[in-house]
């Protein structure tokens, strides 16, 4: 997984650019309560694309974040966190008329997550095409995004423009839909919106729940459902995450399963983002992984271990692992 730092000159050829939302999550100070029952909340940086950018940097990779925050204390705090984690922030913009997005998130006693979002509209939704840092997009070896940035204009058009810029410059497109149903006007709008850019991605990572949702209730364990309804001819890699059980992978040539890495779960927030960081970090330094099943399986085990470490600590960004921690865990798995 080593990357040769001299091969890219000043244009780092393993750069992963993450596009989308960064926000503040407010999490109850005690577990297993509804939002109404929570006695107090603690603020935590959030937003899947930003988590992935930090995750890659913590693993020793090179990453950048493109998005918009409010010209407010929370916006500055978030950008500071990116900078502290060596994420390139040249593509971040500030909006003086809209606030940084907020989300109140809790895990209830019944295990269900409850969300309350403040985005009416929030700064991330207002990123305009004219505000894109074209230079950093053109340098992306991998351009990664979710679907939340597709919900509202002007951000949606900006997202589509950034994708086509990255593609034209030879970047690989990576998509994690990261379904957040409460943010969409309706279930159908969510399905249509998520699928509207499906065929353009080179890499897609989805969860079992998302398969069920996108296929209208089909069995997420059925390979035929995945291959017939979700795999498309342009795809280099489709990954289905199964939480602590591991993941499944599908390429043009082969398919299989990589078991999960056992760990003591405290908080699953950010586990999927850590997984994405892990696999993209491996791919950024070696795009031929798609073609070699054994090396792809190693990379997916590495990504599973990234997720396994993240669930042992509260919060997403503070829990994202270093490369040393992941390799140590992978070694333990190999020895057992």
Automatic annotation (TrEMBL):
Belongs to the carbohydrate kinase PfkB family. This is fructokinase. PROSITE patterns: PFKB_KINASES_1, PFKB_KINASES_2. It comes from Dimocarpus longan. It holds the Pfam family PfkB. Keywords: ATP-binding, Carbohydrate metabolism, Kinase, Nucleotide-binding, Transferase. It catalyses: D-fructose + ATP = D-fructose 6-phosphate + ADP + H(+). GO terms for cellular component: cytosol. One of its GO terms (biological process) is fructose metabolic process. Pathway: Glycan biosynthesis; starch biosynthesis. May play an important role in maintaining the flux of carbon towards starch formation. Transmembrane segments: none annotated. One of its GO terms (molecular function) is fructokinase activity. Residues 15-322 form the Carbohydrate kinase PfkB domain. Its EC number is 2.7.1.4. SUPFAM superfamilies: Ribokinase-like. It is an enzyme of class 2 (transferase). It comes from the Eukaryota.
